[in-house]
Amino acid sequence: MTRSVDVVVVGAGVIGASIAYHLVLRQLRVAIFDRPDTPLPPSASWASAGGVRCQGRDPREWGLALEASRRWPLLSEELGADTGFRATGHLHVVERPQDVDPLRARVARERRAGLPVEPVGEAELRSLAPALARTAIAGAYSEGDGQADPRATTRALLSAARRRGGSFHPWRVDALRLGAGRVIGVTAGIERVAAEQVVLAAGSWSPRLASAAGLELPVEPRASQMLLTDAARPTLTPTVTAEGRALSLKQLPGGEFLIGGGWRAEIDPERHTCRVLEDSVRGSWEEARALLPALTEQRLAYRWCGIEAQSVDGVPLIGAADLPGLYLATGFSNHGFQLAPAVGSAVAAALCGERPPALAPLSPERFRTPA
Ligand SMILES: Cc1cc2nc3c(=O)[nH]c(=O)nc-3n(C[C@H](O)[C@H](O)[C@H](O)COP(=O)(O)OP(=O)(O)OC[C@H]3O[C@@H](n4cnc5c(N)ncnc54)[C@H](O)[C@@H]3O)c2cc1C
Asked: How far, in Å, from the CA of 136 to the mean position of ligand 1?
């Protein structure tokens, strides 16, 4: 039997869950497909570092990043479940004198765009993060940024979508259904669901599903890894990144340090799984200890990896596909978590016929070759 809804959302990672939630807020009939108990490894929402940072982004993401930073502090209350968001501030540091002026220039551009970020000198940097190595000489600080729990956030968005009437189908979509030159729904096992629109939010799995429907996406799977130490006394308040270092560093509420920065993991493209690489563990750990010497007293407790949809130009693809009936929300290229609340509301608006300006620079149209 074929069931009929307004929108099918394929994938309940943080992006699909947020889109589904915002669609049901607009009273649309929504069916969401994914494995039960999502997020699960190796999805990006499961592996994510949970950094909530609006500074240091590609200008094409500024609109969404700004809107997302307004939403994060209110999200737990709105969803009725804790996302773990804490506005610890985010500090991006430079260690070489020649990097100071380019950072100031970047901050000035972001401030003109309305992003809440400010330049900090050495003294202020020391008071914000006294434990950082003396090599850090200046920085950019965004007070409202911070961290959240990616798995809790994903579950909170999905639960809120379901509570408000979205139907969750605990299995994966096998194929997009085509009819008369458009996508008309999905099949998943014996289930067929017809829909006006299908949103492809299946992260790094998206290219495979699209390709089977004849659409090649400029997106490829990319695996990266994270490290977690054992717990320490409170040492580092802001989340930290550093110019010239592949590093993201934060201390979690329980005292553990979470270390990332895009270090590659090994990917098995056939099975769509990933494996932690020892070289990446060493490199990542060294970068972190160089900037936060207190880490030499810590032990690495866990390591894991996840697979993200990497777009060829490093920013997401959000918008109507070259196949009527299909809407893309993929290619988040290792920084989609912060954007998620704003992506959900903008995509819901777009599917209701509005034209959110924040989505214009991210449209898949940028890859269309002129006829
Ligand atoms: C190691 C790592 C650290 C990161 N750190 C940060 C960070 O600090 N800050 C930040 O902003 N971003 C970060 N990111 C990026 C961010 O986590 C991702 O951009 C975001 O989670 C992408 O969410 P998604 O829903 O698009 O994809 P995913 O989370 O991968 O979800 C895709 C979902 O689709 C489902 N799916 C697949 N195939 C099907 C199918 N056929 N039918 C139905 N469902 C299907 C999967 O099961 C999965 O649940 C990080 C990413 C990684 C990998």
From this structure: 32
Distance 186 CA to ligand 1 centre (A): 21
Atom index in ligand 1 nearest the CA of residue 224 equals 1
Q: Is 12 in the pocket of ligand 1 (CB under 6 A)?
A: yes
**pLDDT tens profile 297-335:** 999 999 999 999 999 999 999 999 999 999 999 999 999
Q: Which atom of ligand 1 is nearest to the CA of 222?
A: 53
Atom number, ligand 1, closest to the C-alpha of residue 17: 25
- The superfamily in CATH containing domain 86-145+220-311 is D-Amino Acid Oxidase, subunit A, domain 2 (3.30.9.10)
CATH topology of domain 2-69+150-218+312-367: FAD/NAD(P)-binding domain (3.50.50)
3: left (phi over 0), alpha (psi -120 to 50) or beta: beta
**Rounded mean pLDDT, 58-68:** 98
